[in-house]
Structure formats: C-alpha cells, structure tokens
UniProtKB/TrEMBL annotation:
Protein name, UniProt field: Gsl3500 protein
Domain of life: Bacteria
Organism (species): Gloeobacter violaceus (strain ATCC 29082 / PCC 7421)
Length: 53
C-alpha cells in the first residue's frame, strides 16, 4: 500500500463512507503521520540541495 492509498483510505474513514466499525480517530492519526512524513521528506530534499550548493 502506498502513502497515497493510505491517505485515501484514511480520508474515507473520516468522511464516514466506510464501514461503521472503523474508527475515524485512527484515520486522523494516519493523516497526521503522512503529513509529518511529507514534511520530513521535503526537509531532507532541501538539505540535499543545500549540501550540493
């Protein structure tokens, strides 16, 4: 499962379009983790560019 697929799944849980036994708070946590990962990835890329310059 890719991060994009995981993000779509989590958003589906939040939108309550999925099965009711799935808790939306778990999906919110997943989206927060994905956001943190994306920020770290951007920071790493910026650091790599800075190191090359």
């Amino acid at each position: 499962m890719t991060l994009e697929q995981l993000q779509q799944w989590a958003q589906t849980q939040i939108d309550n379009t999925a099965r009711p036994q799935v808790r939306p708070d778990i999906a919110v946590s997943i989206l927060q983790l994905i956001e943190a990962l994306e920020e770290l990835k951007e920071q790493q890329q910026a650091d790599q560019v800075k190191d090359k310059g």
